[in-house]
Amino acid sequence: MSVRELHASPSVQLGTLKAAIFDVDGVLLASPHEHAWREALSGITDPNLFTTEIYQAHVAGKPRLIGARAVLKALGVPDDGSLAVSYAERKQKWLEYLVHSGGVTAFPDALRFVQAVLSLGWPMAVASSSKNANDMMRSVHLASGQSLFEVFDVNVCGRDLAHGKPDPAIFLLAARELRIPPAHCFVAEDAPAGIEAARAGGMTGLGVARHDDAAGLRTAGADLVVTSLDEVAVGELAEGRMRRTPA
Q1: How far apart are alpha carbons 116 and 72 in whole angstroms?
Q2: pLDDT digits (tens, 9 = 90+) for 200-246
Q3: Omega of the bond leading into 63 within 30 degrees of 0 (cis)
């Protein structure tokens, strides 16, 4: 257990958690966003230069055009003001192709965790900047037969907001629509920008390190970092505390 986890935020220590907010890409779904961003670089620069590290650091959790500009800048590609727009459009076309060709899968641990939180009777929200998140969730089903899209009380995916992560706007909107104070919510995120947004909004940050990036999530301020959502102690969560399952 890290020093940060031992000295967690008051909302963790005092057992006041009572609602969950989930990011989609990288937390619930192994979606084809990264693949689409990489393929869309063909004709601009070498797609192999687009690594998972670049995706996590510059794109994950951000609106499409902001992500496109960030990728081009990270790769040293000059942008005359229109290249990022065309790159973002090509990425969207690639994503739609991949989604409709069966390129979306759910993480089994995520489906188990969502079901566990449902069993607690907690209100849950899903919050992603992606306008494609809902279509992707509709293609995934839980053991109950419900689609992943159907199980959330609040859905703020793809909302047009002035600022993307690490600004907390999308998570604050989710908490407001859940009618739960931010301090009583935890946010499950796989990107440092998402964790920063959760913490900026006064929420507990649960970092899901699916890309060997636990250090970056801790640096961003995550209260707990796991490599699988199976590691979260559901019994402790029922008491309002975010803890790791004992080894």
Answers
A1: 40
A2: 999 999 999 998 889 999 999 999 999 999 999 999 999 999 999 98
A3: no
CA distance 5 to 246: 13
Q: For 40-94, how does the pLDDT look when each residue is reduced to its tens digit (9 = 90+)?
A: 999 999 999 999 889 988 888 788 899 999 999 999 999 977 999 999 999 999 9
Residue 237, Cα to own-chain centre: how many angstroms?
20
Whole-angstrom CA distances from 74 to 45, 49, 59, 82, 214 are 12, 10, 10, 17, 22
Q: Two tokens at 202? A: 């006064």
Q: Which residue type is seen at 51?
A: T
Contact of 178 with 28, CB cutoff 8 Å? no
Q: What is the number of H-type helices and E-type strands within the chain?
A: 12, 8
Length of the chain: 247
- Identify the bridge partners of residue 188 per DSSP, sorted by sequence position: 22, 206
Largest CA distance in the chain: 54
Selection from 119, 101, 93, 95 nearest residue 24 by Cα:
95
Single-letter code of the amino acid located at 223: D
Decide: 105 and 29 in contact? Cβ < 8 Å: yes
Amino acid at 174: A
- Identify each DSSP E strand in the chain by its residue range: 19-22, 29-30, 105-106, 124-126, 154-155, 185-189, 204-208, 224-226
**Which among 160, 205, 153 is positioned nearest to 178, based on CA atoms?**
153
